[in-house]
Amino acid sequence: MNDAKARPSSSKGTGGAGRPKNKHGGAAGGARKDQAGPREADRTPLPPGHDLRALCADLLSLVRKGELLDGLLEAGPLSQRFNALEIKDRALVRAIIGTALRRHGQIAEAIAACLDRPLPQKAGALQSILAIGAAQVLFMDVADHAAIDIAVELAGRSRDTAKWKGLTNAILRRLQRERDAILARQDEARLNTPGWLFEAWAKAYGTDTARAIAAMHLVEPSLDISVKSDPEGWQEKLGGKLLPTGSIRLVAAGGVDQLPGYAEGAWWVQDAAAALPPLLLGDVAGKTVADLCAAPGGKTALLAARGAHVTAVDLSARRLKRLSANLDRLGLSADVVTADVATYAGGPFDAVLLDAPCSATGTIRRHPDLVLLKEPSDIEILAATQARLLHHAVDLVRPGGLLVYCTCSLQPEEGAAQIDALIASGAPVERVPVRPEEIGGLAGAITPAGDLRTLPSMLPDADPHLAGLDGFFVARLRRR
Ligand SMILES: C[S@@+](CC[C@H](N)C(=O)[O-])C[C@H]1O[C@@H](n2cnc3c(N)ncnc32)[C@H](O)[C@@H]1O
């Protein structure tokens, strides 16, 4: 198959080589079958390197069917396989699956260019094996021959994919041979970003910024830490960089619970941008603050560490358990309430923080699976929920008190449009513009209306692994 295009042996179906099915496309039964493992043609145990790549392919198949990667790694049969691996192998699994997701569009395009017609839809497992192999061959510093040989063997082991063993070998060898030319012709920003997202970001922030955001999604982001106190001291002990916003930034290297200060509850993991909304409530010491949509509690912890009497409200009892466990480890406390914020009847509070459920498109650096899982219709549905929660949140603030609204989304419908609509509806609130000195001097993140809009392309650094911010929208309002 040197220069000729390869021909899959089955011509039925129209599924592309790498474009994943959307989250509504996968049946639960299919997911269970994959979680139990592929249909084995050969039942001999896999050698170690094969095992972890097989796990990567199984994880990718389930993400393509709509499962969140974090959920798969936290619970269920694949998490058991993952946790049975040694730490260094777990890191390799994260790196391979992370690369396959961050570079999914380039990988799909490169594989498709090797085929004269798309792989059949039923070749889903093969698509994952190919994508995992291609991620390594095209983008990772691992031995090509190992990546290719293992992918070929994995294809050969399952009855579903065995007939494409030769094709797998031919495609991956061609990618290896033509790697430089493939990468030189590809537009990585566009290929790895769904068109609807890229166009929305270009419209909101300009094409150059949309490209800069997309570029940041290709890089494993830093590990950001919020401390209860003594940021300078912890910066030194952790060997990190103290950001102007007060967070400590480290190059992510796994094993967070092994770092100094974790066991004693001195700090918690929180993106530097996620730490900003509570700061906009000012001095909260001794005040009553409702943290609405609070779990797993990063913002609750910041408010409690700053002396607020926090009531943490969330719909999810399971996520609130995590919030309580996090607060226990940190030696902090809050009143925890399981309730729907839309009907919650507490307060009035001196201040309210609403971190509304959203598309989370501002966190794609940390959750690259999101680009495969989100669709335009999600934004519309979430925006309607946000409007409902925001209107009710106003009623929970005492007159003269502050309300901070935030989402970790890059979509304007989930950000400024919500505040504009709230004010236009006659709600008794007015914007209190954010000042640069409240957010570590990040003047470029303040919009003309006085809201805060962080972007993944902000906070540049010579080391790309130490650059960037999650994309948050934050508005501060005062209740009349
Ligand atoms: C963005 S997360 C919150 C993150 C959290 N504030 C933090 O800093 O750790 C959104 C949360 O909203 C919760 N949620 C979604 N709809 C809700 C509703 N109607 N009422 C209360 N909580 C809701 C979800 O359970 C989820 O925990």
From TrEMBL:
<feature type="region of interest" description="Disordered">
    <location>
        <begin position="1"/>
        <end position="49"/>
    </location>
</feature>
<dbReference type="InterPro" id="IPR023267">
    <property type="entry name" value="RCMT"/>
</dbReference>
<dbReference type="InterPro" id="IPR049560">
    <property type="entry name" value="MeTrfase_RsmB-F_NOP2_cat"/>
</dbReference>
<keyword id="KW-0808">Transferase</keyword>
<dbReference type="InterPro" id="IPR001678">
    <property type="entry name" value="MeTrfase_RsmB-F_NOP2_dom"/>
</dbReference>
<dbReference type="Pfam" id="PF01029">
    <property type="entry name" value="NusB"/>
</dbReference>
<dbReference type="GO" id="GO:0003723">
    <property type="term" value="F:RNA binding"/>
</dbReference>
<feature type="binding site">
    <location>
        <position position="355"/>
    </location>
    <ligand>
        <name>S-adenosyl-L-methionine</name>
    </ligand>
</feature>
<dbReference type="InterPro" id="IPR035926">
    <property type="entry name" value="NusB-like_sf"/>
</dbReference>
<dbReference type="GO" id="GO:0001510">
    <property type="term" value="P:RNA methylation"/>
</dbReference>
<protein>
    <submittedName>
        <fullName>Ribosomal RNA small subunit methyltransferase B</fullName>
        <ecNumber>2.1.1.176</ecNumber>
    </submittedName>
</protein>
<dbReference type="InterPro" id="IPR018314">
    <property type="entry name" value="RsmB/NOL1/NOP2-like_CS"/>
</dbReference>
<dbReference type="InterPro" id="IPR006027">
    <property type="entry name" value="NusB_RsmB_TIM44"/>
</dbReference>
<dbReference type="InterPro" id="IPR029063">
    <property type="entry name" value="SAM-dependent_MTases_sf"/>
</dbReference>
<dbReference type="Pfam" id="PF01189">
    <property type="entry name" value="Methyltr_RsmB-F"/>
</dbReference>
<feature type="binding site">
    <location>
        <position position="314"/>
    </location>
    <ligand>
        <name>S-adenosyl-L-methionine</name>
    </ligand>
</feature>
<keyword id="KW-0949">S-adenosyl-L-methionine</keyword>
<feature type="active site" description="Nucleophile">
    <location>
        <position position="408"/>
    </location>
</feature>
<keyword id="KW-0489">Methyltransferase</keyword>
<comment type="similarity">
    <text>Belongs to the class I-like SAM-binding methyltransferase superfamily. RsmB/NOP family.</text>
</comment>
<dbReference type="GO" id="GO:0006355">
    <property type="term" value="P:regulation of DNA-templated transcription"/>
</dbReference>
<feature type="compositionally biased region" description="Basic and acidic residues">
    <location>
        <begin position="31"/>
        <end position="43"/>
    </location>
</feature>
<dbReference type="GO" id="GO:0008173">
    <property type="term" value="F:RNA methyltransferase activity"/>
</dbReference>
<feature type="domain" description="SAM-dependent MTase RsmB/NOP-type">
    <location>
        <begin position="185"/>
        <end position="480"/>
    </location>
</feature>
<keyword id="KW-0694">RNA-binding</keyword>
<feature type="binding site">
    <location>
        <begin position="293"/>
        <end position="299"/>
    </location>
    <ligand>
        <name>S-adenosyl-L-methionine</name>
    </ligand>
</feature>
